[in-house]
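REQUEST FORM: STRUCTURE PREDICTION
Request ID: SP-0412
Submitted by: Lab K.M.
Chain count: 1
Length (residues): 289
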Amino acid sequence: MLDYTRYETPAATHRQLGLLCTGVGGFTHKTVTCPPRRLSCYAAVWISNGTGWLETSATPQRIQIVSGTLFWLFPGVTHTYAPDAGGWTEQWTLFEGPLMASFERLDFLSPAQPAQFVGNSGAIETIFAQLYTDFQESGPLTGVLSASLIHRLIIVVHQLAIEMQTEHDPVARAVQSSRAWLDEHAFEVCSLEELAADCNMGYSTFRRHFKSLVGCSPKEYILRLRLRRAKELLAFTQQNVVEIARHVGFADSFYFSRLFHEKEGISPSLFRVQQRLALGGGGFQGSEH
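STATUS: Completed
RESULT:
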């Protein structure tokens, strides 16, 4: 039985924002089949109770759906799905926009793997509850406001899927263990070849798995950790750039400053000035590049 459904037609100008939510709905005890169809937008379907199946033109065989699974539906991809005889609890949302092409390109969701088992997730339930509230209250900005929840939903499902993979896949566990090690030792001299060997992999294989799970290469991950810490030190300490560079693992402060400017778009000195002004800080002493 249908419990609720709400739709929105966004303003034409709002479509420039890249992501819009256009509908939400849910069933507490759905027993009917969704017949074969193709959507002109994306959809997310969250099954919090019950079992069933999903078939799509982008997958070779029927996918079994169990409680704790979210599956994505893609524009132009024919699909059909249904609960088993006992029915299931389903919540869904519709969304669209060019930003979705970036999420697909980065493998946050894929027509080839539309179903993600993430277990009983309070975070996903919270997102759908807030979507329902936004559409209930309604307003001219509902589609824009709810788009932030779609963005969060995509990231949360991706994170939860990685956690589930790590729990069951020894390779994923090894890679995540190496990531945790880097969190503790990123400011030291790190041999990534040795880190790969500790995972019983060659570096190229290790790099591929690391990038797949973490979203960037090991070298980029180290750099991100170092720059994050450098920004904190620039904003909250009196250390000069030479000292900060050494603190975060760069022996050459000129190289550090060049990298900082390349990644952040401003020099370390200017970053410090801007943050000190925003934080109400005073002047500082020290030699800087």
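NOTES: The first helix runs from residue 99 to 105.
Reviewed by: T.R.
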